[in-house]
Amino acid sequence: MDAFTKPIGGTATTAVASFTRPTQEEAEAAVRTLLAWAGDDPTREGLLETPGRVTRAFGEFFAGYTQNPKAILSKTFKEVGGYDDIVLVKDIPFSSHCEHHMVPFVGKAHIAYLPHDGVVGLSKLARLVDVFARRLQTQENLTAQIIDAINENLGPRGAAVMLEAEHMCMSMRGVRAHGATTVTHRFTGVFAEDRVEQDRFFAMIKR
Ligand SMILES: Nc1nc2c(ncn2[C@@H]2O[C@H](COP(=O)(O)OP(=O)(O)OP(=O)(O)O)[C@@H](O)[C@H]2O)c(=O)[nH]1
Ligand SMILES: [Zn+2]
């Protein structure tokens, strides 16, 4: 039996959870059960390899449970010519899965921070989004986890995170509100205290 890891609250990285991870065979059997439940024949030729493919796909969708956000943000650079203004990486594409329906939600993240003691590599912000997106999520929790990780690991003077996404559980099923976009944002530090900084963030995103 394989001890499973899962995030515990906030931005916690990995920890041994109180449940055990099913085997590959058990996971594939579960997929066959769902195929039959949906009304198809798991033994027909076209579906024979599907359980293996689905578990491999799940391995990619949910790879974030074993990835460590702290490691991603561990390297910073101080030689930036004294630059201490907003660093914004916008339009970071992400796809995640809602924890209610296990259906994708897909969108863009915008991340800004005001450096305090060095900057982080730009790609690391996109990697950070990816780690948390590759877990079962709500958009609110994803927003909070991203900004908490930035604050905990970079200690910036301020941080701002905005996510815009379409939830397939709202468009492909249920209310079928195609094209509806959910927007979440969170500000901390200077961005939370100063409306001028918030407005600069919004203006830079729109530009
Ligand atoms: N706040 C929030 N809600 C979400 C998110 N993703 C999905 N949901 C919502 O989670 C809710 C679950 O509601 P339930 O009534 O328990 O489930 P349901 O019967 O499938 O709901 P419907 O989608 O309205 O058919 C739905 O309103 C979804 O739109 C998210 O990231 N954040
Ligand atoms: Zn959902």
UniProtKB/TrEMBL annotation:
One Pfam family it belongs to: GTP_cyclohydroI
Family matches, as PROSITE patterns: GTP_CYCLOHYDROL_1_1, GTP_CYCLOHYDROL_1_2
Pathway assigned in UniProt: Cofactor biosynthesis; 7,8-dihydroneopterin triphosphate biosynthesis; 7,8-dihydroneopterin triphosphate from GTP: step 1/1
One GO molecular-function entry: GTP cyclohydrolase I activity
Key words of the record: GTP-binding, Hydrolase, Metal-binding, Nucleotide-binding, One-carbon metabolism, Zinc
Gene3D superfamilies documented for this protein: 1.10.286.10, 3.30.1130.10
Location of the GTP cyclohydrolase I domain: 28-205
UniProt keyword annotation of Metal-binding present: yes
Catalytic activity: GTP + H2O = 7,8-dihydroneopterin 3'-triphosphate + formate + H(+)
Quaternary structure, from the entry: Toroid-shaped homodecamer, composed of two pentamers of five dimers. Homopolymer.
Similarity-based family: Belongs to the GTP cyclohydrolase I family.
The protein's name in its UniProt record: GTP cyclohydrolase 1
Organism the protein comes from: Devosia oryziradicis
